[in-house]
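Hi support team,

I submitted a single chain yesterday and got back a structure, but I'm not sure I'm reading the token output correctly. Could someone confirm the output below corresponds to the sequence I sent? I've pasted both exactly as they appear in my results page.

Thanks,
R.
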Amino acid sequence: MKGSRASRTSRSCISKMIYTNSDGGSRGNPGPAAIGVVVRENDSILEMYNENIGKATNNEAEYFALIRALQLAATYTKEEVTCILDSELVVKQLLGQYRVKNERMLKLFLQVQYLQENFKKIKYVHVKREDQFQQIADALLNIKLDEKKP
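Hi R., thanks for writing in. Yes, this is the structure output for that exact sequence:
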């Protein structure tokens, strides 16, 4: 499961506030799954990433995408990160509004909790799929899902 990175700027441009847009999806539930991530400073894209992640549910793929987003964001800042997702379920679980009942999802949830420690401040925001950067993350994951296997 090798990911593709497209970087637009040097990591030496460390910002105080970074935004991530992440999206995960599967074809079938569970089924072949992929993730797409956009790391940005306001409206300026710093990096784009996509990866096939094997077989997963849609919700698991959303968590995998967020995990990669947090890992990438940590290379740009240790200060503040705002993580933007179109998965209302994942955002509400991270905000403590919903419980995580599924054992596989709980492992991913705990991995996110661990990665949060890399930042002084973290915020989770749910957006509609119409968000321009969310559309890019979605397109990135669909590129991977559409790839033909050799």
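A quick pointer for reading it: The chain has a mean pLDDT of 92. Let us know if anything else looks off.

Best,
Support desk
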